[in-house]
Design goal:
2 copies of one chain form a homodimer. The first copy, chain A, has about 475 residues and is α/β, with parallel strands linked by helices. In chain A, helix 2 packs antiparallel against helix 14 and helix 9 crosses helix 14. Chain A contains 14 helices and 16 strands. The first copy, chain A, folds into 2 domains: about 270 residues, Aminopeptidase (3-Layer(aba) Sandwich), CATH 3.40.630; about 160 residues, Glucose Oxidase, domain 1, CATH 3.50.30.30. In chain A, the strands form 2 sheets. An 8-stranded mixed β-sheet of chain A has the order 1-10-12-11-13-16-14-15, with helices on both faces. Chain A has an 8-stranded mixed β-sheet with strand order 3-2-9-5-6-7-8-4. Helix content of chain A is about 35%, strand content about 25%.
Chain lengths: ~475, ~475
């Protein structure tokens, strides 16, 4: 820890004046100056060594981490080893059975009948959980719609057709998660709604704010009572091409060929590593993200780097000799993308253990520059966390506000605070669930400042309790 | 403007309850709800049409805008035409004589004598204002130093040597302008200090936070009483290579060849466009940036896109039929990078005009996601601007704090508030003054949210006064 002359003078003054101040405070608390110094030392370490960013390059080398895949298991062992090498007090794997969807080798869409466009291939990718088309593929006319109401109003025109959902991402919503939420029903429920009206397959405009031709995948719902039909995402350039082509040749036929499949559930694991609390080992602060990803790109922003941010918190504590009073536990949840099985499994454990879960912080919104934390907690607890803003602000946290925690930590019951790390999100949907989500899309300083922000909040909760 | 049912109900309630509220306020003010609606309409327009981003692609097509260059004049005419096409009440060019430095065709550094490294070329670029080396070039031994004190302590060892300043960018400073400020003395004063101790040329480690081999240029000082010597910036990879090479072969010789030159001052212009105030035409709000750039990349972040953000403010006002009460004037200052002549010239005009300059907002820190505004003003004025934070926050402005305005607007005397737009800066030094500063490095949403933020603040100052 860096102690300047000015700080030594300050500390000397405090030694005289502090006791009367301390009496009116929680006896476990330190001075703000002390907390600022700890925060500064964490930030300095993060930006100087950029350890997490280096770990990310190793993780991305392994490949993407689709639940049930060989790479996901390799990555799990990598994380286990890394947490051991940090010097955690314990590291373990919590077994979780996960859905095992495979993309296969073929995902292809081309215009198979048209005077104008025959042979034109489109940039598509199968959606997670989709069934395949069989070897012959599916050939049919295409009908473009923009929402489920428009679909229903088409009457029997949709029978035997490929339904093309083409409602664009709403760029006018400032928070890009809002734009995502505004369009994602087409991807998630498109196949169900299309099947209900006799559709034979679905093409969905990628839910993204970047104008390129990269398809953005993601999970789709399947309901037992509705026929399962195949579905693909399509890149924006080809979505616009197809829309224009349909205006000129409404009778064109498209052929889809996909050999993706749903296999039996596979064995997988949550990866858990912790530093035991020195005073209140029974009180647990969970920090984590989801370790699975989609299989395009390497799941750098979603959610490899965010997972590593929480692993790095433990590394900061060890390197800077910060001994937490309360247990700080990093949990890398498997299978958030298509099942949330890891989150559910950990919550089941939390229900049965005698430990008290104090708070959980999830990082699952990319690793762009820090902006804030969103908190699900009682107002008085929120006030308490907000009172730490001047310290958190050193790592560029500008707000702490009531809001969502995260898909995985939200499974935990009986916990005082569920906290979501909330970095800048303007670029997130550019890369989300796509081949754009690479190591190169991560900025080292932006990532490391986030690691520091999460570490500072973890440290403060650990010291002050909630 | 979007008016929802909820807003109609709200407005109906306000019609009953507002009068008593209004009485206690400045009579020129509108309700916060009204301001929120205006702000929303600006943000929606910005994100929907992304007009400024399209303009940026046109500007980058013209090329970089080094003061005195042909491209800079082309760009000035482009901006003049664009401001006219917006529908400004007046558009004019303010003549400014500017320094005319030219890079020439040659900027080359290679190891000319060494058993180990002979022939190795290094990635360098001449610094602005540097003299050339003459056709033969300069060949000499190289001495690496990290600061001016170390240089002075070398005694006569520096005589006849090429001085290599290699102090790295300080990554631990959270605000990257801090890291820049921490290292830039080497670039700005390196040649002066080296010449004082008999150095014959200077190589400076690029002041950047991105680890690549792209040299980052910028202006260097020249003092009449100290011999002028040539100086180049070197890419980080080659800076590290050279440092390692010097350890193994301290006697190696480097040859520098540069044909850059300082020509006589050239005719140039500030570009000015304005919408006249309907109630107080004599009260002026200046918004702008500097229109010149370095000649690597296209000066997208520095400072093409920021200039366009302020042009776009006028476009929003025209498209959304916002008629300002006070005059809103966009000034694109020429020659900030190597002379500030445009800023000085405009300030001279401001001194003599009978207009009152109320406030100036400068955008010159890139066009990343908005974070805040920094203000040089009396505390009560700062309080007033801070009271608008809930409205500004719609465009992601989290703070308004006492701080720097900008190089160009700071030339203006007799003005109530000098305001700097302060977006996220984590990626700024990656591109600053280098070939990395391209159209592709700009994100449309990040840029447009900044345009909206500046427009909202301009609108509020215009409505409320200061």
């Amino acid at each position: 820890m860096k102690i300047s002359v000015a700080n030594i003078i300050l500390i000397s003054i405090m030694l005289v004046t502090l006791p009367c101040f301390v009496r009116s405070q929680n006896i476990t608390s330190h001075s703000n100056e002390y907390y600022n110094e700890v925060a500064d030392s964490i930030i300095n370490h993060a930006l100087k060594y950029q350890t997490g960013y280096k770990w990310l390059s190793e993780l991305c080398e392994i490949g993407p981490r689709l639940s049930g895949s060989e790479e996901s298991i390799k990555a799990i062992f990598w994380a286990e080893e890394k947490l051991k090498s940090i010097g955690c007090d314990s590291v373990w794997l919590q077994p979780v059975m996960v859905p095992h969807w495979v993309r296969g080798n073929t995902e292809k869409a081309y215009i198979s009948s048209s005077k104008l466009y025959k042979g034109k291939e489109l940039s598509v990718a199968s959606l997670g959980s989709s069934i395949g088309t069989g070897e012959k593929g599916i050939s049919a006319q295409v009908i473009e719609v923009h929402n489920f109401e428009e679909l229903k109003n088409l009457g029997d025109k949709t029978q035997g057709k490929i339904i093309f959902f083409n409602r664009p991402f709403n760029e006018t919503i400032v928070n890009t998660f809002g734009g995502y939420g505004d369009a994602v029903d087409q991807r998630f429920l498109g196949a169900v709604e299309a099947a209900k009206v006799g559709g034979v397959a679905v093409i969905v405009r990628s839910v993204t704010s970047r104008y390129d031709n990269v398809p953005h995948v993601g999970v789709m719902a399947q309901i037992d009572t509705v026929k399962h039909i195949p579905a693909v995402a399509i890149g924006l350039i080809d979505a616009d091409f197809l829309s224009e082509a349909l205006k000129k040749d409404p009778g064109l036929h498209l052929t889809l060929k996909m050999d993706c499949a749903n296999l039996p559930d596979a064995q997988s694991y949550n990866v858990i590593g912790e530093i035991k609390g020195s005073e209140f080992p029974n009180e647990v602060i969970v920090i984590g993200g989801h370790f699975d990803s989609w299989d395009k790109g390497c799941g750098a922003h979603d959610d490899g780097a965010p997972c590593i941010q929480t692993m790095e918190v433990l590394d900061f504590f060890k390197r800077l000799k910060i001994e937490p009073k309360r247990t700080v536990r990093c949990v890398l949840f498997i299978n958030e993308e298509n099942g949330t099985r890891g989150g559910i499994e950990y919550a089941a454990y939390a229900d049965t253990t005698k430990e008290v879960h104090l708070a959980a912080i999830e990082s699952d919104r990319g690793v762009f520059t820090p902006r804030g934390f969103t908190v699900t907690a009682d107002s008085l607890i929120l006030d308490r966390i907000q009172s730490w803003l001047p310290i958190l602000n050193l790592s560029l946290i500008d707000y702490v506000r009531q809001g969502y925690g995260g898909v995985d930590i939200n499974q935990i019951r009986n916990i005082k605070a569920l906290i979501g790390y909330d970095p800048d999100n303007q670029r997130y949907m550019d890369v989300h669930h796509s081949a754009n989500d690479t190591f190169e899309s991560v900025h080292p300083r932006e990532m490391e400042l986030g690691s520091a922000a999460i570490a500072i909040l973890t440290y403060l909760i650990n010291e002050e309790g909630l």
